[in-house]
Amino acid sequence: MHADPQGKRTERLDALYTQRPDLEALFAPLLASIEAIEAQLRTSSRILEQRAASDPVCARLMTVPGVGPITALTYTMSIEDPRRFARGEDVGAYAGLVPRRSQSGERDTQGHISKAGDSMLRRSLYEAANIILTRVKRPCALQSWGRKIAEAKGPRRAKVAVARKLAALLHSVWLNETEFRWA
Predict the structure, then answer these.
(1) SS3 per residue for 40-97
(2) Is 102 a residue whose pLDDT tops 80?
(3) Which of 55, 132, 162, 168 fits as disulfide partner to 66, beta carbons 3.0 to 4.6 Å?
(4) Whole-model pTM above 0.70?
(5) DSSP string of 116-180?
């Protein structure tokens, strides 16, 4: 959320109402609804943050850049037990972040991602990858690697690749009971 969305909104509406006073009666119920929804979103966000912070696994996962409460909670709820995956790379496949393959005879083609796994996990990992590539200010190896891929193959492929690598990294952090190291 923005720092003060209501303040700016009030300024703009006051300017509008001075030009068009007839619109105030029309917009009043809409604004009341928007304010109620924003209050509920703030409450829900606070509950999610508290829930994630109180879970030691989620707290460790949130040390990874780009991973917030929603991604950490989604990851832990989807994976349940990290030992069920032999390798961290298998988590990316579980989330459907691996290329689809079509094999027949001598033909072996790779397509777009399979999307065969947990869609909620895939979306949250993709969003976390997007944050790593676009918003994280402090450089890290995963971000540098993803940006090189973005230059070579485009931003969407880079986000998928970073999401897949992020799934493996989170698996390692969870399994080894460590925190992310920026080195």
Answers:
(1) HHHHHHHHHHHHHHHCHHHHHHCCCCCCCHHHHHHHHHHHCCHHHCCCCHHHHHHCCC
(2) no
(3) 132
(4) yes
(5) -S-HHHHHHHHHHHHHHHHT--S--HHHHHHHHHHHHH-HHHHHHHHHHHHHHHHHHHHHHT---
